[in-house]
């Protein structure tokens, strides 16, 4: 009866199984029957080589867990969206286009000054504090003709870009704000439709397109701004349409809210300079709170990731423990049977075989325990490092918005 030489190193031992009667296939009487077939006068090496293909356990699936375990931990909780606030870090390419109502009613006065002046002030402040790297565009509408019936056609066709999409330049942007004055009707739908052309080509997972409509009233040119906003939001551009209303009556607010909702954005009313200041403060408070919650959620996410990976690691270590213990006990029982059956040369061979079985068990035990402890330590460090990272990030951003 020929038998393969058994492995002497732990790497080989872990790949030898499964034996014919390993695991649930073990049957003591069948094993004894196999042992009875072995030749007499066996040496320790020969006996050991016969036992391996009969009783060696299958460690490969659990070794694979060790080998494939990724000890890194990286949270994937979505960071708060800083676009609604005028300041924040830029997680991806952000394109902001402002559609400014230049209809005649924007020349009206409210508490704090002329509506158009307040609008320009709000826009100037907003774009100056956008994240570094954000691109900005400014489109006006209703800025030609007048708000008289005779000029309705020309005014309703008037919408143009006065600051093309690009990096923010303070002087150039300021100059663009002086290129028009409030005069005509309100072709809001046409402006939203044209914004789609302005942003064309800016698509993809790493691109975020945001529209801000600054207006004091509803569409007056017969267009359908709700439809236009919905189509823009649902297009490949996936733009979010937000609306800032200036001194808008109840009917106008209801209409503009519908436009913002259709565009996936929000509606905000700003009647005075003080209202604008409060609105921005509320945005900062919102972001500060969201970053605090993000820190908690991210820390918990790191803990969950650690727990899932550690459990997988621990289970593999425990199964290996169970298997090498079971394997050792069965091999020792087989050794005793061979000795009592007179298959071994002498008592010294029995003792040497006993040592071989224990050596195998100890090597597998040491490998498993050392690997488990090493990976466990790496996981713990990765978790702690990630939790510290998100803590610092959350605190940094909370402080940033603590205006």
Automatic annotation (TrEMBL):
Residues 95-287 form the VWFA domain. Residues 1-25 are annotated as: Disordered. PROSITE patterns: VWFA. Residues 12-25 have a biased composition (Basic and acidic residues). InterPro entries: VWF_A, vWFA_dom_sf. SUPFAM superfamilies: vWA-like. This is D-amino-acid dehydrogenase.
């Amino acid at each position: 009866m020929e038998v393969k030489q058994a492995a002497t190193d732990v790497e080989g031992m872990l790949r030898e199984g499964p034996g014919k009667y390993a695991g649930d296939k073990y049957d003591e009487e069948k094993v004894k029957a196999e042992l009875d077939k072995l030749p007499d006068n066996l040496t320790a090496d020969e006996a050991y080589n016969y036992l391996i293909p009969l009783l060696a356990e299958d460690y490969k699936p659990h070794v694979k867990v060790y080998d494939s375990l990724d000890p890194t931990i990286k949270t994937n909780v979505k960071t708060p969206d800083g676009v609604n606030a005028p300041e924040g870090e830029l997680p991806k390419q952000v394109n902001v286009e402002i559609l400014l109502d230049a209809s005649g009613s924007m020349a009206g006065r409210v508490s704090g000054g002329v509506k158009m002046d307040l609008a320009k002030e709000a826009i100037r402040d907003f774009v100056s504090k956008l994240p570094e790297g954000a691109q900005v565009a400014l489109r006006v509408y209703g800025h030609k003709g007048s708000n008289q019936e005779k000029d309705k056609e020309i005014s309703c066709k008037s919408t143009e870009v006065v600051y093309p999409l690009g990096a923010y330049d303070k002087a150039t942007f300021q100059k663009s704000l002086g290129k028009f004055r409030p005069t005509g009707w309100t072709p809001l739908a046409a402006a939203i439709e044209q914004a789609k052309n302005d942003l064309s080509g800016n698509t993809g997972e790493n691109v975020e397109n945001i529209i801000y409509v600054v207006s004091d009233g509803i569409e007056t040119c017969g267009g359908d701004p709700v439809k236009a906003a919905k189509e823009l939001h649902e297009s490949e551009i996936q733009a979010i349409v937000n609306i800032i209303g200036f001194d808008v009556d109840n009917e106008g607010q209801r209409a503009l809210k519908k436009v913002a909702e259709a565009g996936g954005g929000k509606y905000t009313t700003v009647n005075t300079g003080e209202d604008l200041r409060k609105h921005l403060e509320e945005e900062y408070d919102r972001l500060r709170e969201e970053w605090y919650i993000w820190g908690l959620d991210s820390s918990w996410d790191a803990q969950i990731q650690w727990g899932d990976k550690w459990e997988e690691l621990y289970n593999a270590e425990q199964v290996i423990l169970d298997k090498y213990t079971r394997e050792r006990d069965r091999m020792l029982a087989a050794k005793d049977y061979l000795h009592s059956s007179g298959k071994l040369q002498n008592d010294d061979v029995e003792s040497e075989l006993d040592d071989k079985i224990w050596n195998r068990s100890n090597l597998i035990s040491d490998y498993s325990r050392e690997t488990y402890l090493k990976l466990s330590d790496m996981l713990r460090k990765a978790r702690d490092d990630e939790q510290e990272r998100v803590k610092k990030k959350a605190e940094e951003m909370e402080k940033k918005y603590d205006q």
